[in-house]
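Before drawing any conclusions, I looked closely at one protein, both as residues and as discrete backbone shape codes, quoted below without any editing:
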Amino acid sequence: MTAIANLPPDIVLHPLLQSWLIEDIGRGDRTTQSLFTTGVGVGEAKLIAKEPGIVAGLPIAARVFQLLNHQVSFVSQVPEAQPCQKGHVVARLQGPLDALLMGERVALNLVMRLSGIATLTRQYVEKIADLPVQLVDTRKTTPGLRLLEKYATQVGGAVNHRMGLDDAVMIKDNHIEAAGGIGNAIASIRGKIPYPLTIEVETETLEQVQQALEHGADIIMLDNMPLDLMRQAVQTIRATNNRIKIEASGNITLETIRAVAETGVDYISSSAPITRSTWLDLSMNIDVSTME
């Protein structure tokens, strides 16, 4: 499986990394800076997987160390989006020891978090790989980490849903309630949004599906519907307008995702790959035999 994942450009990524390094280093790394009072040596290190999983975030880790010192060489040993096994060396580093030591925690935290997301995402994707449906993520992300967590779901093989509220219109249950119905919500919004934003409507009943169809929704989400009801909704939408995209959402698990996919929806959205994933255990070891 080849995942297509794009990192944010450096002008976006670097301020995030700098802020996380500043958070960790504070007014200075008391341990490292006290060790190297007469000059900084050069050494080598390696990142080692302590359990199997899908690797994600190594290019980000490289930028962490290079922000601390551009002389750090970071060479990935496992390609991004590829599996690693317990004991695999996933990256090798060489450079000034103070940069290696000060960057270790931030770099590892990011790779461990993102690899955990990519690993669970891949498990979900593999459940539906032979069906004409795509897994998409959600906005249930860690504040400050959305760009990178959504990058990790891409690495795992999923497709990004909207990155933020400005990407598309999604009329959810509270919007419908506040507007006095689906028709009112769509009519009010359509004339105020820029082209080419799409309008997605969250529905829970066949009546709401029909209302979304009548008022020209571009995407219809079937939220928390029982499978039988979901099949009926898909058939109704396809018979009315085959160009409308259909998304299923709500309580998607590894055990249920295939049955949901088999109803004929185009997309399945789930927060689980991000919210239910665990970090992939990695460590960084300094090779003292190479120290200068």
In short: The CA atoms of residues 51 and 86 lie 4 Å apart. The chain has eleven helices and twelve strands. The first strand starts at residue 42 and ends at 49. The chain has a mean pLDDT of 95.
